[in-house]
Specification:
seven-stranded mixed β-sheet; globular; FAD/NAD(P)-binding domain; five-stranded parallel β-sheet; alpha/beta; about 25% strand; 14 helices; Enolase-like, domain 1; about 475 residues; 3 domains
Length: about 475
């Protein structure tokens, strides 16, 4: 039997980062992955989605070229080639992960791992023993129990990203991050898109102003959005799939070529635990962990999607992996898990971090806000950007930044500055005092910070 200090089960952004960090700290590490390195994020999530979104966005921008003095006759696209390009990006990054693991002397074991003892993991017919084990097995798209859910043409994000599946008419079940990114992708390619949101608004967990503005912009682009929509059945019709749903007491239906089910994800820890240990889990299979990502079994850790309390984001999984390894190696945690930015790659991009106004108020925190409308930003005008804004939430007395909500071009890049500011306890004045270059989208952050005190130079004075 081969013995290690640490076995990491799952090679996604949580698992492979944890393995490399452990190797850097001097641990003897092996990583077990049954599929491809990179996990959902690299193979069936973040990377392929953004690759397709980028291509679709460029195609869509062609129609605004005349405003810039440009012309393009008969613009078109080849979705199969877009898919091939996406695969090239995936393969290049996957090879990079493999090279990093090899360079850090992490042994990669291919196959499905199952616990066969308190410290023993079996792959095939080979046993591996370790002092510590990190579970980073992620999850899979959740399919609700509905009539017609198994019909051909009813797909998940895994299906769409795994092959060149394309629908001219698409219904999307769910109005969270994944569903709305696919809505943007297909609409940019000229497809008919219908979104069925089960809540009273899209992005129900996001800032209400962002939700309302994005809904308005998507509808303006021709995306059909039904809120408070409860899907009851998917039926095979003569002209396609018919989705039957109730919205606000009214029976509706829409006929489409494909149905993308985007109703969240479920984890399956029992597949690895194999009945050897019993851990407390949620209805959707997440494992209960402490602040160090340790389970109720002292040598067993869980990170990423499968860990309750860990944001279901690739970068959160990576940070959790680093902190779990630090705890195993008796090092202080390196990552601030209280500040986790969230990014949505719609048009315009959305990025949030920390508390919204409503969240702060629910915690009894008195706040003041600063806001800048990006319609007055030079870079936004130059690039024909959609309407957007930057909003900062600060503690009333100290001015300390508590949260930020961005809906504008490059929001997913600019959120880093604000995440750092929150983590380090900076104030709006601290941000406003730093010179931001012109012309940039980032100037909007400085303007919003100045607006906290009502002193934004490029905002009309507030009415007194």
């Amino acid at each position: 039997m081969t013995k290690y200090d640490l076995l990491v089960i799952g090679g996604g952004p949580g698992g492979y980062v944890a393995a490399i960090k452990a190797a850097q700290l001097g641990l003897n590490v092996a990583l077990i992955e049954k599929d491809h390195l990179g996990g959902t994020c690299l193979n069936r999530g973040c990377i392929p989605t953004k690759s397709l979104l980028h291509a679709a966005s460029l195609y869509n921008e062609v129609w605004s070229w005349p405003q810039l003095g440009l012309a393009c006759e008969r613009p078109s696209y080849d979705y199969a080639v877009m898919h091939q390009r996406k695969e090239q990006v995936i393969n290049q990054l996957r090879d990079g992960v493999a090279a990093l693991l090899k360079a850090n002397k992490v042994e990669v074991i291919t196959g499905e791992a199952k616990m066969t003892g308190l410290h023993t993991v079996t792959v095939g017919d080979i046993d591996y023993d370790a002092d510590y084990i990190i579970i980073a097995t992620g999850g899979r798209p959740y399919l609700p129990s509905l009539p017609g859910i198994d019909l051909p043409g009813v797909v998940t994000s895994d299906d769409v990203l795994g092959s060149a599946i394309f629908f001219q008419r698409l219904a999307i079940i769910g109005a969270g991050v994944v569903g709305l990114e696919f809505a943007s992708l297909y609409r940019d390619l000229g497809c008919d898109v219908t979104v069925l949101a089960s809540y009273d608004r899209i992005l129900p967990k996001s800032d209400r102003e962002i939700s309302q503005n994005l809904s308005m912009l998507m509808k303006k682009r021709g995306i059909n959005i039904y809120t408070s929509a409860q899907l009851s059945e998917i039926e095979q019709g003569a002209d396609g799939l018919i989705c039957h749903f109730d919205t606000k007491g009214k029976e509706e239906q829409v006929c489409v070529d494909g149905v993308l089910v985007s109703a969240g994800r479920r984890c399956y820890p029992e597949e690895f635990l194999n009945g050897v240990v019993s851990l407390e889990t949620t209805e959707r299979g997440q494992i209960v962990v402490d602040e160090h990502f340790c389970t109720s079994i002292p040598h067993l850790y869980a990170i990423g999607d499968i860990a309750l309390g860990c944001e279901r984001l690739a970068h959160a999984a990576s940070a959790a992996g680093i902190n779990a390894v630090c705890h195993i190696a008796n090092h202080p945690p390196e990552m601030d898990m209280h500040v986790v930015p969230n990014c949505i790659y719609t048009k315009p991009e959305i990025a949030t971090v920390g508390l919204s106004v409503d969240e702060a108020k629910s915690q009894g925190i008195a706040v003041k806000t600063g806001k800048y409308l990006m319609g007055g930003n030079g870079k936004s005008l130059i690039e024909l950007a959609d309407r957007g804004f930057i909003k900062l939430v600060c503690e009333q007395d100290s001015g300390r930044l508590l949260g930020a909500q961005l809906m504008c071009c490059r929001a997913t890049d600019m959120i880093n500055e604000l995440s750092l500011a929150i983590s380090k306890g900076l104030t709006a004045q601290d941000i406003a005092s730093v010179i931001h270059p012109h012309p940039t989208f980032g100037e909007g952050i400085m303007e919003a910070a100045e607006d906290v005190a009502g002193a934004s130079i490029h905002t009309m004075p507030r009415r007194r």
